[in-house]
Amino acid sequence: MAIKSYGTMAVDWEQRIDFARLRTQRLEKAQASLRASELGARSWNRVEKDHQEARGLVDRAEWVFILVGLLTLVVSVWVSFVLPREAVKPLSDLKAAVDHAAAGNYEIEFDVQGEGEVVQLAHSIRHLIAHIREKLETEVTGQRR
Q1: Quick one: what percent of the chain has pLDDT higher than 90?
Q2: pTM for the complete prediction?
Q3: Backbone torsions φ then ψ of 11, nearest 5 degrees
């Protein structure tokens, strides 16, 4: 076994580079120079301050995400329950009117409020029932004469 002889580049000529020793030496040298200067203490205070600011931003972001999530939940529940009722009510009124007309009762009157295709369909069905009622009245009056 040979005696270790370190050169200027921290190389043992038999073992080549001793990375563990090299890392330990460089770390000790850097820590010693930080302790000797005020830079180490000031840097650590700056790191702590930046960490506190970042933590505050993260806390605010968490609250924003919670509020946005709750708002989204409330809006989705409203859309799921309230909005379909407003869309289904005119359709159910229209279905009841069409069922009466199909049963032969053309004297039914209905009024669907709102806008959109359902209301247009209701107006068309109302005109259709009125037209059928007029046809039946003209046939009945024509048969009486």
Answers
A1: 18
A2: 0.42
A3: -115, 125
